[in-house]
Amino acid sequence: MLNSIRKEILNLKANFRIKEGVSVKLDQNETPWDIPERIKEKILEDLRLTPFNRYPTLTEYHSIRKKLAEYINIDEDKLFISHGCDQIIFSFLLTFGGKGKKVLIFEPTYPLYRHFALLSGTEIKEVLLDEFYSIPREEADKLVKDVDLIIIANPNNPTGNLQNKEIIIKLMDYQIPILLDEAYFNYTGVTFAEYVESHENLVIGRSFSKVFLAGIRLGYSISSPRIREIFETINFTPFHLNHLNTVILKNIDLFGEWIEKKVQCISSRREELFKNLEEIEGVLPYTSFTNFILFRVENFSANYVYEKLIEKGVSIRDLSGVRGLSNHLRVTVGTEEENKIFLEKLQEVFYEGSERDF
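The structure corresponding to this sequence follows.
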């Protein structure tokens, strides 16, 4: 029976680890605060009135799609509501990829692009970002040669930088299906959504996970109405959502001011955390436009620093196995107290390991 499993599936590896005893969790780019109690109570009250024995209806879906469209100021017919941004990525690859198709991915980047490409049977063309983690400034026709679709994260994860606008537009102009992952849009305000009207090949993917709803899994895409229809069809809309998703979107207006304040707070603390990392000898942080910071360590291996931080109750992301990031780590911006503990424990690791031979 195992001989019948697709080779692509057998080659996949789980990248999850249960971390025991961790009290400071800064490894998944979540926001450090839960939603306000008053908003949670309103959502729970609406949820209590919702029949759990019934599926969400198409009428409900159209209602929350209209509500979300008004909230983000996008035409409703361009909007598809998803179960997280990952569903947008997979839907894009199912729609435009598959056997005999090749996707262009710029590494290092979000690992699920590769994961979903393999699941969909799409061949991968991998191009390394330059030393500044930007799309290389070579002739665009060399980049798109023999590719059928393109995925770009902007800003990029795990490096945190924005890509050059002119290069992205040039790639869009080839009319090859292109997905721009704007999961961290709330932190940048930078978007290419205005180009959807003139570029039917463009799909924008966004997520609410990075600002307040990582545990709920909600996202959306902005695209031509035809692509939106296709995404809704392949995901059996509205059955891909649940009642908690729909109730939250019915109340999306309640979150606006709170999200804005928290994004400003995280951005401010990110700058403070960056400066503190710069002051630690042997640490090189990179400028970020997200809610995390990538940094390189010297004199120690990234994996050693990661494991020692785990022992001290702090979890960040070890990127030493990622191509182009051989001695790098990534830390999510946390609360003021979490950031303080992380910095203290990081310096402890360096001090305690200063006499070791690496």
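Residues 38-254 form a domain with the Aspartate Aminotransferase; domain 2 fold (CATH 3.40.640.10).
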